[in-house]
Design a protein that fits this description.
TIM Barrel; 469 residues; nine-stranded mixed β-sheet; 20% strand; binds zinc ion; 12 helices
């Protein structure tokens, strides 16, 4: 008896992290059930002739509706954030359930589920952010949460309301080792930043561009080196998030050359922006305030090398959606406030894939297989979602993006679907865009239109991190 498919995607060129081949994709009950030439007709059909079919992106670092402590508010919630992601070819997002100091981690997770409930159009998992590793958190809450499918968490070496000291970092890393979780670390030297910031403020140097002076690459390098050393002492894998350039990369590459399981993530802002973008007229530079800050063109070249040579395993957006012209956004302390009072972070969940595809694959800097690995397969593996997510294989969820590789798009904020009032990439031209996006076999985006209902996205429990990359 011939197999009946709910949907057949016919005639496309499929790329995974390992292969590129021509095949039809048969989909039943939301999963890929066949990959072969000339599959029989499905109930529905999509003609992908001349198109590239890729795994839907996995954006493993984005912030939606995350509570803040300075009066600012994130502009994207679990409705607009995942929708924007889907329009950019991403089918799984992993934002952060952030513990406030003094709060139980369980309460933070419960609160974040309430924020997400019934809103997301694509599937989502949570990372945790551990800011208060009390005996209760380390002894009960975190081990229990890891077993329930929250198998990765971020810790900080900077920001007074988030940072851990070295002893706390060691305790948390030791727990990650015991329980089989993956620690993600934001590495910048807090005291050095505080000292530099104070000096800049005393000198009246508070314009947005001085954010980059207050957070130099050396401060990132030192904290990266320290974090790697602590992970080496504990003997546990660790991933360094949003790495900005060569200084920190050298520490990571050195650790990896010694055989340490140190993984690294970078983001679009570190290949496309520089510190000069913080020096726009008036307060406009605030649009590009993020931490670590974008560096210089030599750093961009280093990051490209790291994307190509395997120093980086993951390319995420670090979408942190603060509106520019808004008293709950970048202007929370008013137009022209000191850089110290500007919420950190820039948007990019919708533009992540097209920017890397166009600048990376299109310009020959990375291979198509590497693009898939960085944007989908590796994050799915590291965060325990593979092979359900992040690849095209029989048995995997039919999370797919069908790309028109020759389509030229000029990025404008008007055409994006996030709730932020700017994009750092306004006017940038890209070649290649994901035109049809499917989540578990259901068309979510087609020809610039949302075809699926918000709330259909499912929460994903993550399995054990696969650190054999
Ligand atoms: O400046 C940034 N990166 N903001 C988002 C939060 C974080 O540290 O990733
Ligand atoms: Zn961070
Ligand atoms: Zn972030």
């Amino acid at each position: 008896m011939t197999q009946q498919f709910d949907l057949v995607i016919r005639g496309g060129t499929i790329a995974t992290a390992a292969d590129i081949f021509e095949a039809d994709i048969g989909i039943s009950d939301g999963r890929i059930t066949a990959l072969a030439a000339d599959l029989p007709r499905g109930t529905d059909e999509i003609d992908a002739t001349g198109k590239l079919v890729l795994p839907g992106g996995v954006d493993a670092h984005c912030h939606f509706d995350q509570p803040t402590s300075d009066g600012s508010k994130m502009a994207d919630d679990f409705d607009s954030g995942p929708r924007s992601a889907a329009f950019g070819g991403t089918t799984t997002v992993i934002p952060f359930a952030c513990q406030q100091k003094g709060q139980s981690l369980r309460a933070a997770v419960d609160d974040y589920h309430r924020r997400a409930e019934g809103k997301s159009v694509i599937d989502y998992a949570f990372h945790l952010i551990v800011t208060d590793p009390t005996p209760q958190v380390l002894g009960q809450e975190l081990p229990a949460l890891i077993r329930e499918g929250y198998t990765s968490f971020k810790i900080y070496t900077t920001y007074d309301d988030l940072k851990l000291n070295d002893r706390e970092i060691i305790e948390v890393l030791a727990l990650a080792k015991r329980e089989g979780a993956l620690t993600m670390i934001h590495a910048e030297n807090s005291d050095a930043i505080a000292w530099l910031t104070e000096a800049l403020e005393k000198a009246g140097q508070t314009a947005p561009r001085h954010h980059a002076d207050a957070r130099p690459a050396i401060a990132e390098r030192e904290a990266t080196h320290r974090a790697i050393s602590l992970a080496e002492i504990v003997d546990v894998p660790m991933l360094v998030v949003h790495v900005s350039g060569g200084e920190a990369m050298e520490q990571i590459a050195h650790a990896r050359s010694k055989g340490l399981k140190v993984f690294a993530e970078t983001c679009p802002q570190y290949i496309l922006l520089t510190a000069d973008d913080l020096n726009l007229d008036g307060f406009e530079g605030a649009k590009h305030i993020c931490s670590p800050p974008p560096r210089d063109s030599a750093s961009q070249r280093s990051v490209w090398r790291g994307l190509a040579n395997g120093t980086f395993q993951v390319f995420s957006s670090d979408h942190a959606p603060f509106r520019f012209d808004d008293p709950q956004g970048k202007k929370v302390r008013g137009d022209g406030a000191s850089f110290t009072h500007v919420p950190n972070g820039i948007p990019g969940v919708e533009t992540r894939l097209a920017l890397l595809f166009s600048e990376g694959v299109g310009k020959g800097r990375i291979s198509l297989n590497r693009f898939v690995a960085l944007t989908a397969t590796n994050p799915a593996r590291l965060y325990g979602l593979y092979p359900r997510k992040g690849t095209i294989a029989v048995g995997a969820d039919a999370d797919l993006a069908i790309w028109n590789t020759t389509r030229e798009v000029t990025i404008t904020n008007d055409a994006l679907h996030h709730n932020v009032d700017y994009t750092p990439y306004e006017g940038r031209r890209v070649t290649g865009w994901p035109e049809t996006v499917l989540s578990r076999g259901e068309v979510v985006v087609q020809g610039g239109t949302l075809e699926a209902k918000p709330g259909r996205g499912a929460f994903l429990e993550c399995g054990a991190p696969d650190t054999q990359l």
